[in-house]
C-alpha cells in the first residue's frame, strides 16, 4: 500500500521544501500536462530533472501529453523511477513501454475515465503499473468518480490472472473519505494532491491515508 502525493497541489515556488514535507511518502507524483492532451499546462522535463536532484523519494511521473512515444522515454532517462503514459495518446504502446523499461524505470499505462481497460489487457506483460483515473485528467481538486471502481476491480483481476508485480494506481479525488473503496477494489498505489497538500500536516495526511488503505486491503 503506497502513497504518492501529487505536487500539483503544492506551492510551485517552493517545490524542494514541498517535496521535503512528504518525505514519509513512497513516491512523489509529478503531473506533466501539455495543454493539448489536457486543457492545462504544468511543467516539463527541465523541472523534473531539477526535482530529481532534490527529491528525498522516487518520482512517479504522470505524463498527460500528446505523442508520449516521443516525449516519455526522456523522463525515464533523466531518472524518474516510474513513468506513466496515457494509452489514449500512445501510438505504439509496446515499443514505448519497452523504451521506458530500457531506461531503468517502471513503465505504466494510464487510462481516462471514459476509456475501457479490456482492449489493453494484452499489454500487461509490458507494464509495471496501470493507472486508473478517478477524475478527468487536467486539474487537482475534482470530485472522485466512484463509477471507476469496477474498472479498478477489472484491472486487479487481470493482474492476478497474469501474475507478476504489477501495481494498480488510482489518481483523482482520493482522500480519507474515498481511499477505502479504492483499496477494496484492488488499488495499491494511491495518488492524492489536495488531500495531502491541503491538510494542516502533509506528512500526517500521508500516514493517515496509508493506514486507511492498509485497513481495507483487497
Ligand atoms: C489530475 C492529476 C492528479 C491531481 C490529483 O489530472 O493527474 O494527479 O493532482 O489531485 P487531487 O488529489 O486533488 O484530485
Ligand atoms: Zn496525476
Task: Record keyword descriptors for this entry.
binds zinc ion; alpha/beta; 218 residues; zinc; EC 5.1.3.1; Ribulose-phosphate 3-epimerase; 9 helices; cobalt
Verbal overview:
- It is a single chain.
- α7 crosses α9.
- The protein is 34% helix and 19% strand.
- The protein has a single domain, classed as Aldolase class I (TIM Barrel).
- β4, α5 and β5 form a beta-alpha-beta unit.
- It has an eight-stranded parallel beta sheet with strand order 1-8-7-6-5-4-3-2.
- It contains nine helices and eight strands.
- With 218 residues, it is α/β, with parallel strands linked by helices.
- The site of zinc ion has 6 residues, from β2.
- D-xylitol-5-phosphate (DX5) binds next to β2, β8 and α8.
Provide a compact summary of the structure.
The chain has 218 residues and is an alpha/beta fold. It contains nine helices and eight strands.
- Poorly predicted regions are none
Report the CATH superfamily: Aldolase class I
Mean pLDDT across every amino acid position: 98
Fraction of residues in β-strands: 15-25%
**Gross CATH architecture:** Alpha-Beta Barrel
Number of helices: 9
Give me the CATH fold name.
TIM Barrel
Order of helices and strands: EHEHEHHEHEEHEHEHH
Keywords: Carbohydrate metabolism, Cobalt, Isomerase, Manganese, Metal-binding, Zinc
Enzyme class: isomerase
Pathway: Carbohydrate degradation
GO molecular function: D-ribulose-phosphate 3-epimerase activity; metal ion binding
Task: List the topology elements.
Layout: E1 2-5, H1 15-20, E2 28-33, H2 45-54, E3 59-64, H3 68-71, H4 73-78, E4 82-86, H5 93-102, E5 106-111, E6 129-133, H6 149-162, E7 167-171, H7 179-185, E8 189-192, H8 194-197, H9 202-215
Parallel strand pairs: 1-8, 2-3, 3-4, 4-5, 5-6, 6-7, 7-8
Amino acid at each position: 500500500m503506497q502513497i504518492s502525493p501529487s505536487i500539483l497541489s503544492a506551492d510551485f515556488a517552493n517545490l524542494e521544501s514541498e517535496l521535503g514535507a512528504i518525505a514519509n511518502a513512497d513516491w512523489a507524483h509529478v503531473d506533466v500536462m501539455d495543454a493539448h492532451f489536457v486543457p492545462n499546462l504544468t511543467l516539463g522535463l527541465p523541472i523534473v530533472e531539477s526535482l530529481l536532484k532534490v527529491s528525498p523519494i522516487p518520482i512517479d511521473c504522470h505524463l498527460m501529453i500528446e505523442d508520449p512515444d516521443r516525449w516519455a522515454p526522456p523522463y525515464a532517462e533523466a531518472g524518474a523511477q516510474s513513468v506513466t503514459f496515457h494509452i489514449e495518446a500512445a501510438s505504439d504502446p509496446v515499443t514505448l513501454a519497452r523504451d521506458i523499461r530500457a531506461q531503468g524505470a517502471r513503465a505504466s499505462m494510464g487510462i481516462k475515465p471514459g476509456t475501457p481497460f479490456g482492449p489493453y489487457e494484452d499489454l500487461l506483460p509490458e507494464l509495471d503499473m496501470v493507472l486508473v483515473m478517478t477524475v478527468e485528467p487536467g486539474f487537482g481538486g475534482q470530485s472522485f468518480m466512484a463509477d471507476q471502481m469496477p474498472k479498478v476491480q477489472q484491472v486487479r483481476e487481470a493482474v492476478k490472472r497474469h501474475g507478476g508485480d504489477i501495481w494498480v494506481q488510482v489518481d483523482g479525488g482520493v482522500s480519507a473519505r474515498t481511499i477505502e473503496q479504492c483499496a477494496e477494489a484492488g488499488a495499491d498505489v494511491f495518488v492524492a494532491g489536495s488531500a495531502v497538500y491541503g491538510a494542516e500536516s502533509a506528512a500526517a495526511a500521508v500516514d493517515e491515508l496509508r493506514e486507511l488503505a492498509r485497513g481495507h486491503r483487497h
